[in-house]
Design goal:
This is DUF5673 domain-containing protein. Keywords: Membrane, Transmembrane, Transmembrane helix. It is a single chain. By secondary structure, this protein is of the alpha+beta class. Helices cover 47% and strands 20% of the residues. The chain contains 4 helices and 7 strands, in the order H-E-H-H-E-E-E-E-E-E-H. The strands form 2 sheets. It has a 4-stranded antiparallel β-sheet, with helices on one face. Helix 2 packs antiparallel against helix 3. The N and C termini lie far apart (47 Å). 16% of the residues are buried.
Protein backbone atom coordinates (compact mmCIF):
# COMPACT_ATOMS: atom_id res chain seq x y z
CA UNK A 1 0.00 0.00 0.00
CA UNK A 2 2.86 2.37 0.85
CA UNK A 3 4.51 1.72 -2.52
CA UNK A 4 1.31 2.54 -4.45
CA UNK A 5 0.96 5.73 -2.45
CA UNK A 6 4.53 6.77 -3.38
CA UNK A 7 3.90 6.04 -7.07
CA UNK A 8 0.75 8.17 -7.01
CA UNK A 9 2.63 10.99 -5.27
CA UNK A 10 5.42 10.91 -7.88
CA UNK A 11 2.88 10.94 -10.73
CA UNK A 12 1.08 13.92 -9.20
CA UNK A 13 4.34 15.78 -8.52
CA UNK A 14 5.68 15.17 -12.04
CA UNK A 15 2.35 16.32 -13.51
CA UNK A 16 2.46 19.50 -11.45
CA UNK A 17 6.08 20.12 -12.48
CA UNK A 18 5.03 19.75 -16.14
CA UNK A 19 2.21 22.26 -15.70
CA UNK A 20 4.56 24.72 -13.98
CA UNK A 21 7.23 24.34 -16.68
CA UNK A 22 4.72 24.89 -19.49
CA UNK A 23 3.14 27.92 -17.83
CA UNK A 24 6.54 29.51 -17.09
CA UNK A 25 7.60 28.99 -20.71
CA UNK A 26 4.42 30.66 -21.99
CA UNK A 27 4.90 33.50 -19.49
CA UNK A 28 8.49 34.04 -20.65
CA UNK A 29 7.42 34.00 -24.31
CA UNK A 30 4.83 36.68 -23.63
CA UNK A 31 7.57 38.81 -22.09
CA UNK A 32 9.89 38.35 -25.08
CA UNK A 33 7.28 39.73 -27.50
CA UNK A 34 5.81 36.81 -29.37
CA UNK A 35 8.77 34.48 -29.51
CA UNK A 36 10.96 36.39 -31.96
CA UNK A 37 14.28 38.13 -31.78
CA UNK A 38 14.96 40.95 -34.26
CA UNK A 39 17.53 40.00 -36.88
CA UNK A 40 19.25 43.35 -37.16
CA UNK A 41 21.41 44.17 -40.17
CA UNK A 42 22.64 40.66 -40.93
CA UNK A 43 20.40 37.97 -42.35
CA UNK A 44 21.36 35.21 -39.92
CA UNK A 45 19.10 33.77 -37.24
CA UNK A 46 19.40 31.10 -34.60
CA UNK A 47 16.35 29.08 -33.63
CA UNK A 48 16.82 27.95 -30.04
CA UNK A 49 14.74 26.82 -27.10
CA UNK A 50 13.97 29.28 -24.30
CA UNK A 51 16.62 29.42 -21.58
CA UNK A 52 13.94 28.71 -18.98
CA UNK A 53 14.42 25.01 -19.82
CA UNK A 54 17.94 25.20 -18.42
CA UNK A 55 16.82 26.97 -15.26
CA UNK A 56 14.02 24.48 -14.62
CA UNK A 57 15.80 21.31 -15.75
CA UNK A 58 18.93 21.84 -13.67
CA UNK A 59 17.15 22.17 -10.29
CA UNK A 60 14.91 19.19 -11.08
CA UNK A 61 18.01 17.10 -11.80
CA UNK A 62 19.76 18.25 -8.64
CA UNK A 63 16.72 17.74 -6.40
CA UNK A 64 16.06 14.22 -7.63
CA UNK A 65 19.77 13.28 -7.50
CA UNK A 66 19.93 14.11 -3.79
CA UNK A 67 18.12 10.85 -2.95
CA UNK A 68 20.48 8.43 -4.75
CA UNK A 69 23.57 10.24 -3.46
CA UNK A 70 22.09 10.16 0.04
CA UNK A 71 21.64 6.39 -0.20
CA UNK A 72 25.25 5.96 -1.30
CA UNK A 73 26.87 8.40 1.15
CA UNK A 74 24.73 7.69 4.23
CA UNK A 75 23.55 4.05 4.03
CA UNK A 76 22.91 3.71 7.78
CA UNK A 77 20.43 6.58 7.82
CA UNK A 78 18.36 5.05 5.03
CA UNK A 79 18.34 1.45 6.35
CA UNK A 80 14.55 1.24 6.64
CA UNK A 81 13.78 3.01 3.36
CA UNK A 82 12.85 1.07 0.19
CA UNK A 83 15.97 2.06 -1.77
CA UNK A 84 15.23 0.31 -5.08
CA UNK A 85 11.73 1.74 -5.33
CA UNK A 86 12.93 5.26 -4.58
CA UNK A 87 15.72 4.95 -7.15
CA UNK A 88 13.26 3.70 -9.76
CA UNK A 89 10.90 6.57 -9.02
CA UNK A 90 13.56 9.29 -9.04
CA UNK A 91 15.44 8.14 -12.16
CA UNK A 92 12.78 9.27 -14.71
CA UNK A 93 12.75 12.73 -13.17
CA UNK A 94 16.57 12.89 -13.27
CA UNK A 95 16.53 11.89 -16.95
CA UNK A 96 13.77 14.42 -17.70
CA UNK A 97 15.75 17.18 -15.97
CA UNK A 98 18.97 16.25 -17.79
CA UNK A 99 17.20 16.14 -21.16
CA UNK A 100 15.56 19.49 -20.50
CA UNK A 101 18.88 21.07 -19.53
CA UNK A 102 20.72 19.59 -22.51
CA UNK A 103 17.95 20.73 -24.87
CA UNK A 104 18.20 24.27 -23.58
CA UNK A 105 21.98 24.31 -23.96
CA UNK A 106 22.69 22.37 -27.17
CA UNK A 107 19.60 22.28 -29.43
CA UNK A 108 19.53 24.98 -32.10
CA UNK A 109 19.10 25.68 -35.79
CA UNK A 110 21.41 28.18 -37.51
CA UNK A 111 19.80 29.80 -40.53
CA UNK A 112 21.35 32.07 -43.12
CA UNK A 113 18.72 33.82 -45.19
CA UNK A 114 20.85 33.79 -48.34
CA UNK A 115 22.03 30.16 -48.30
CA UNK A 116 20.34 26.96 -49.46
CA UNK A 117 20.90 25.06 -46.22
CA UNK A 118 20.68 25.37 -42.46
CA UNK A 119 22.61 23.76 -39.61
CA UNK A 120 20.51 21.61 -37.24
CA UNK A 121 22.12 20.67 -33.93
CA UNK A 122 20.41 18.02 -31.83
CA UNK A 123 20.05 17.85 -28.06
CA UNK A 124 22.93 15.38 -27.87
CA UNK A 125 25.27 17.58 -29.95
CA UNK A 126 25.06 15.90 -33.35
CA UNK A 127 25.16 18.42 -36.19
CA UNK A 128 23.41 18.10 -39.56
CA UNK A 129 23.85 20.33 -42.60
CA UNK A 130 20.39 20.15 -44.17
CA UNK A 131 19.67 21.48 -47.64
CA UNK A 132 16.16 22.78 -48.19
CA UNK A 133 15.75 20.91 -51.48
CA UNK A 134 16.55 17.57 -49.77
CA UNK A 135 13.72 17.90 -47.22
CA UNK A 136 10.90 15.56 -48.26
CA UNK A 137 8.12 17.45 -46.50
CA UNK A 138 7.13 19.23 -43.33
CA UNK A 139 4.00 19.23 -41.18
CA UNK A 140 2.85 21.69 -38.56
CA UNK A 141 0.66 21.07 -35.56
CA UNK A 142 -0.28 23.30 -32.67
CA UNK A 143 2.68 22.19 -30.53
CA UNK A 144 5.10 20.72 -33.09
CA UNK A 145 6.75 21.16 -36.48
CA UNK A 146 8.05 17.95 -38.04
CA UNK A 147 10.16 17.63 -41.17
CA UNK A 148 11.60 14.58 -42.91
CA UNK A 149 15.16 14.59 -44.20
CA UNK A 150 16.81 11.44 -45.62
CA UNK A 151 14.54 8.95 -43.81
CA UNK A 152 14.96 10.82 -40.50
CA UNK A 153 12.41 12.93 -38.72
CA UNK A 154 13.35 16.21 -37.03
CA UNK A 155 11.17 18.12 -34.60
CA UNK A 156 10.96 21.84 -33.85
CA UNK A 157 8.95 23.28 -30.99
CA UNK A 158 6.77 26.33 -31.75
CA UNK A 159 7.96 27.66 -28.38
CA UNK A 160 11.46 28.05 -29.84
CA UNK A 161 12.85 31.53 -30.33
CA UNK A 162 12.74 32.57 -34.03
CA UNK A 163 10.45 29.63 -34.88
CA UNK A 164 8.42 31.78 -37.29
CA UNK A 165 11.55 32.78 -39.18
CA UNK A 166 12.39 29.09 -39.68
CA UNK A 167 8.85 28.34 -40.84
CA UNK A 168 9.00 31.30 -43.22
CA UNK A 169 12.29 30.00 -44.67
CA UNK A 170 10.78 26.54 -45.27
CA UNK A 171 7.90 28.13 -47.16
CA UNK A 172 10.15 30.53 -49.08
CA UNK A 173 12.44 27.68 -50.21
CA UNK A 174 9.42 25.72 -51.56
CA UNK A 175 9.58 22.79 -49.17
CA UNK A 176 6.49 20.63 -49.59
CA UNK A 177 3.96 21.11 -46.81
CA UNK A 178 1.57 18.30 -45.94
CA UNK A 179 -1.80 19.47 -44.68
CA UNK A 180 -3.88 17.52 -42.21
CA UNK A 181 -7.11 15.96 -43.35
CA UNK A 182 -10.22 17.58 -41.93
Amino acid sequence: MNYIQEVIEVIIISGLIGVVVRSVIFWQLELTDKNTVPLGKNSNAVVSLPSILIWLGLPITIIFLIGPFGYILFPKIFDNEPIIENLLLSSPMVLLGLFSTMSGVFWNIKIDKDSDYFIYRTTFGRTYKIYYNEISYFKTWKHLLLFKYKRKFFFVSPDAINYHFFLQMLIRKDVKKIFRRV
